[in-house]
Specification:
The structure holds 2 protein chains of 2 kinds. By secondary structure, chain A is α+β, with helices and mostly antiparallel strands. Chain A has 14 helices and 19 strands. In chain A, the strands form 6 sheets. A 6-stranded antiparallel β-barrel of chain A has the order 14-15-16-17-18-19. A 4-stranded antiparallel β-sheet of chain A has the order 8-11-9-10. In chain A, strands 2-1-3 form a 3-stranded mixed β-sheet, with no helix packed on it. In chain B, about 30% of the residues lie in helices and about 20% in strands. In chain B, the strands form 3 sheets. In chain B, strands 6-4-7-8-3-9-12-13-14 form a 9-stranded mixed β-sheet. Chain B has a two-stranded antiparallel ribbon with strand order 1-2. The longest helix of chain B has 28 residues. Classes of the chains: A alpha+beta, B alpha/beta.
Chain lengths: ~500, ~350
């Protein structure tokens, strides 16, 4: 028995058959129930877990149709239009769904009708019924008002005026109904009867292309899965070719026999349709996930979907077939690394106009970085020389992710470079120093009311052993008695 | 006459066997081709020998063409290494301490810059573990561009959470020809980076014909499959050159102290190289021309110098050299790694 708290009282939210046999009812107070039957087992309701379970079931139902929607707290809508023939007709499909749910340990009611409203009512008030088109009115007429999916307040109002069945509402004149009970009632009624279309919004976006394979014998081994992927990818390739597209995001759905569904997605930096390459990408992903995929008793349905696609530009290869497209190689390499190690595994620096050294270069994942301009064939591009100014600003080859504080015991002149400093607990003696290069904070990025960030004075330092560092002093020395002395940071290392 | 012919034939057979064995060894070792003795001209069984020899060399892992070498441009260093750094191999570049990471990276990038002179526009990949990037800093594209002419869009870098991942990325990248060079940087001497792992990297680099630079910060000189190991540390930079001579107290071009830690052909040696960022070339420098002087020398109130003080030194003359700890060789090398013949 499951309890929930309602108006400061513990009430029964759900109960099993044995509890029902004890004449306990939903909505009854737990205290009353305990008084009647002291031995009952009460569990606190966990709506989060219920939701997760329902989503898991929705994932599993994805095997029947891509259009699965969650309905309230306890229902699923499956739009099976055009899918039933794959499972041997409507009756056979419904039976299969029910059987499989029963085997998984769920007590499920199903209804199939040409409108979501009628199917909803059929499932809840008839149990496994299939309503043919046009029979909705006959189905709904004898049912109570709750079959119309209306708010409890509206229902109570309707009942207070003597309309107790859906049929009675249907027979009543529409205009006064709408005036008294609002437009929702008639909307629901029309939707159930098929006079108005009702859209079921699917939980997941429908993949533009999917191929799947039902397996008589469940597979468990990663190798088998990979082999299946390459076969599915071959099927996918013809579809992609027909559309002139290549896949940018691919997802692999593994439906486990006991109902769990794993979704494994890979992204590509450029449109891809070659089965071998797709298989290699998934190979990396599966290797990385090896610990996290629980095959259990095996997967009985494997589906490969293209979640997003982009136009695929055909490139004429040369006759020898050896024309090596370096960029494509690198893109594939980056994709494979990304599939295994995550989005930020391969980074590309992008230069940003900024004075602050840490902002002047941004690292972006390879897939999002602007594509490199391919050098024109047969023409060597001269390497661009660094901008020649009289004193080009020296920049380090390595920059610390965040400046590391250093201890500077003394400087010769207040605004000058340190004479020695302590960094990572080691003492460094400064042999030579160049600077300062003053870099002020970017006032145009400063929020109004924010205090202005202190300026930084950068020094190039060479220590007594010849290593070169980039230090800065944040802020200025001040003669004010309370002013804290400026702090020093290590920001980079020179070659 | 008959016995003599017999003897000649036996000699030829024996020589054939020796050549075959030698080739086998060379193939396994990936020996540099000049060490493969060409058969003596006019010797019996010449023709067949030469053809088989050339095919072996062509197929041999160390590609025999001279441009398989990466010339540093410093003649003394190139000859010491038997022609240059191997251009299609794993090369180790060691830094003795993590704080040398700047110099080690700088030296490796200068080599990459030399490679890029030949292979313009090709990207490079820098793989490192999260640990080393945290300890020694991330590659900074602006600095790389200014010093080594590596365009930001040419650089890819990859931060691997674990060493195993870094090795995997490097292996995958090393087998590609699309990268001009791959840099793999790790810290310390992890057990995973053993002879087998480095041999795999080496073989891939050889097959792809691309260099793979293994930067090891604060690592022991463990046995690896790399044919060459260089130990790099920072050297004090020369002063900046101005029209009026060297500018005292300034920090000029980057300089490196390079020791040959291991090489099949070379005896250990020490070189001080200076990188010219304008020409993208190395220049060798005599040992420490610049005095390592404390900053106070430049200051407003210098401490009284010990010894004789000469009034008005001539413009451009080097400052008096005061020996400091920095001039002393600071490391103790294990003698085993000075041995030139040690393979692996």
């Amino acid at each position: 028995m499951i309890s929930h708290r309602d108006n400061n009282t513990q009430r029964i939210a759900a109960l099993d058959e044995r509890a029902e046999a004890l004449r306990l009812k939903r909505g009854m107070g737990i205290a009353d129930a305990r008084a009647m039957h002291p031995s009952i087992d009460v569990v606190e309701a966990d709506p989060e877990a219920d939701r997760r379970l329902l989503e898991g079931l929705a994932d599993w139902c994805d095997r029947y149709t891509p259009l699965v929607a969650i309905d309230g707290e306890d229902g699923l809508f499956l739009d099976v239009t055009g899918c039933t023939h794959l499972f041997g007709g409507e009756r056979a499909m419904q039976d299969e769904i029910l059987t499989r749910f029963f085997q998984q340990g769920f007590d499920v009611r199903a209804g199939l009708a040409s409108t979501p409203g009628a199917a909803w009512a059929a499932a809840r008030f008839h149990g496994n019924r299939i309503v043919a088109g046009g029979e909705e009115e006959a189905l709904l007429a004898p049912l109570p008002l709750s079959a119309l999916r209306i708010a409890p307040e509206t229902r109570a109002l309707l009942e207070s005026v003597g309309l107790r069945t859906a049929g009675a509402v249907m027979a009543a004149p529409r205009a006064p109904l709408a005036r008294r009970f609002g437009a929702t009632l008639l909307l629901r009624l029309d939707q159930a009867l098929g006079r108005l279309d009702e859209a079921v919004s699917p939980r997941l976006p429908v993949a533009p292309l999917s191929v799947e394979r039902h397996l008589a014998e469940p597979v468990m081994l990663t190798d088998d899965i990979e082999r299946l992927i390459s076969r599915l990818a071959v099927a996918l390739k013809t579809d992609l070719e027909r559309r002139g597209e290549g896949a940018r995001t691919l997802a692999l759905f593994l439906f486990r026999v006991d109902g769990a569904v794993s979704r494994i997605a890979v992204g590509t930096s450029r449109p891809m349709r070659e089965p071998r390459l797709i298989q290699r990408l998934f190979h990396e992903r599966l290797t990385a996930l090896e610990q996290n995929i629980d095959a259990g008793f095996g997967f009985d349905l494997v589906r490969l979907s293209v979640l997003s696609a982009a136009t695929f530009d055909l490139v004429q290869g040369d006759l020898t077939g050896e024309a090596d497209d370096d960029d494509a190689d690198i893109a594939l390499f980056a994709d494979r690394v990304r599939a295994r190690l995550g989005e930020a595994a391969v980074l590309k620096p992008v230069v940003v106009e900024s004075h602050l050294p840490e902002r002047a270069v941004k690292s972006v994942p390879f897939a999002e970085a602007p594509q490199r301009r391919a050098p024109a064939a047969g023409r060597t591009v001269p390497r661009t020389a660094p901008p020649m100014t009289i004193y080009p600003p020296e920049r380090p080859v390595r920059l610390f992710r965040s400046p590391e504080p250093i201890e500077v015991p003394a400087t010769e002149i207040p605004e000058g470079p340190p004479m020695n400093f302590r960094w990572r607990r080691a003492l460094y003696r400064v042999a030579r120093a160049e600077g300062p290069e003053r870099i002020a904070a970017e006032w145009w990025r400063q929020l109004p009311g924010e205090e202005e960030a202190p300026t930084r004075d950068y020094y190039r330092i060479e220590d007594s052993e010849g290593r070169r560092y980039w230090l800065y002093r944040q802020g200025l020395y001040s003669s004010a008695p309370q002013a804290a002395p400026p702090r020093w940071y290590m920001h980079g290392v020179f070659a | 006459m008959l016995p003599e012919v017999n003897v000649m034939a036996m000699n030829a057979v024996a020589r054939d066997t020796i050549f075959a064995l030698r080739r086998q060894i060379a193939k396994i070792e990936g020996t540099l081709p000049e060490r493969l003795q060409a058969p003596v001209p006019g010797a019996p069984a010449g023709i067949s020998n030469i053809t088989s020899e050339t095919t072996i060399i062509r197929r041999g892992l160390a590609v025999a063409s001279p441009d398989a070498f990466l010339h540093t441009g410093i003649e003394r260093l190139d000859t010491a290494l038997g022609g240059g750094l191997p251009g299609a191999a794993l090369s180790e570049i060691h830094g003795l301490e993590t704080r040398d990471a700047g110099a080690v990276a700088g030296f490796a990038l200068s080599l990459v810059s030399l490679i890029l002179k030949e292979k313009q526009g090709l990207p490079i990949l820098w793989v490192g573990t999260a640990e080393i990037f945290h300890e020694a800093g991330l590659p900074y594209a602006r600095g790389l561009h200014a010093l080594f002419g590596i365009e930001p869009e040419q650089l890819l870098f990859s931060e691997a959470p674990k060493l195993l991942d870094a090795l995997w990325i490097a292996e995958e990248a090393a087998r590609m020809t699309a990268f001009a060079a791959v840099i793999l940087e790790i810290r310390g001497s992890p057990r995973l980076l053993d002879l087998t792992a480095t041999r795999r990297l080496h073989a891939r680099a050889q097959n792809a014909g691309r260099p793979l630079l293994l930067l090891r910060q604060a690592g022991e000189a463990d046995p690896t499959a790399a044919p060459v190991r260089l130990i790099v540390s920072a050297a004090p930079a020369a002063n900046r050159e101005t029209v009026a001579g060297p500018l005292a107290g300034s920090i000029g071009r980057p300089a490196f102290k390079v020791d040959i830690g291991k090489s099949r052909t070379a005896l250990p040696g020490q070189f001080t190289l200076e990188w010219n960022p304008n020409e993208h070339a190395f220049a060798e420098r005599a040992e420490n021309p610049v005095a390592v002087v404390p900053a106070s020398q430049r200051g407003a109130d210098p401490a009284p110098a010990s010894g004789a003080v000469l009034a008005f030194p001539a413009l451009g003359s080097p400052a008096p050299i005061s020996p400091t700890i920095g001039d002393q060789p600071s490391r103790q090398q294990h003698p085993a790694h000075r041995s030139p013949r040690r393979a692996g």
